[in-house]
Design a protein that fits this description.
about 400 residues; 6-stranded mixed beta sheet
Amino acid sequence: MQKATTTDVSRPPVRMWPVGELSGVEFDPVLAELMREGPVTRIKLPNGEGWAWLVSRYDDVRMVTNDPRFSRKAVVEHDVTRVAPHFIPVPGAVGFADPPDHTRLRRAVAAAFTSRGVERLRERAQRMLDDLVDAVLRDGPPADFTERILAPFPLAVVCELMGVPEADRPRMHEWTSLILSASEGVKRSEQAKTRMCEYFAGLLRRRRGTGGEDVTGLLGDAIADGEISESEAVGLALLVQIGGEAVTHNTGNMVYILLTHPEYQARLRAEPALRPSAIDELLRYIPHRSAVGLSRIAMEDVTIAGQAIRTGEAVYVSYLAANRDPDVFEDPEEIMLERDPNPHVAFGYGPHYCLGGMLARLECELLVSTLLDRFPDLRFAVPVEELGWRPGAVIRGPERLPVTW
């Protein structure tokens, strides 16, 4: 997007960020270098044009994500350097909206994501999880936790929240996996996104004006009332559905940490009251994605940490880096299960704070507690070196978790 000029000599150099395949919960070494170089650096990612700013310090990340001078909507008009080879924003998608449109879109489904809305799902979610665990215990060890529990459980919960019938859930998983992969190619990702959009368009037409507390019911009512358009509703449904898949990867990383640190398992079994703070600490610590997410465009000149950002330049924030800021988190490279306070930004910050953050946290709590309580001698069934991490995944997580007990 931006081209170098003679005035760029006073700016930090543009660093190539190849975004290689990382395993386990290894922190990206390139990101670590960028953090050491300064709070505001410049990067070029594998795809897209030009370079972009990278903001990595906690306070600056929160400022950018909560400042209307940085626009998500404007990104659609720019071929910003990025991780994924494909860039296929859905028209009217909430992820590419700015207030007040962004506020209006989120308001349409807000009831499903309040404390009451999420708690409404707790009992049903626990029953679904127990059914999955019962089947694993009945079949006996070994078992692949990713295949048997960590993938089907979040899918079932988000589909329950969405109002997606059980028979359609395997398709949702397949489409989401293709959309989130950087290795399947632009064509397959675009086809998957198109099919998911077509599916939700049809479901929303059937749900229009029918009421209900699930997301498609709320969106159907909002369309009928003229609050949002059908294309906006489809884009919002797609975002929520895809976001549900992230729980599989996050909990996969959590289980990996617990299995490679038996002392954590022992402590959380002995001190159940510690589990909520442990979940927050694991959310802070795990590198839940590869590189960075969506960028923003500076709508006017802004200075961040002494660095002048010009109008029209792209800016990325790194929540992963912010969660390792030593000015905010004591010994940030260490896992402290009792860390308090823990103001992590694993679910983002500002207007684009993850819509399903409360639901994702509930799922993490249920999964971790259930596995600790029902598998008292849980351990890997293969050497740790044989585990593989999803290739080309935008959201990092283990492909398989073979375990025994």
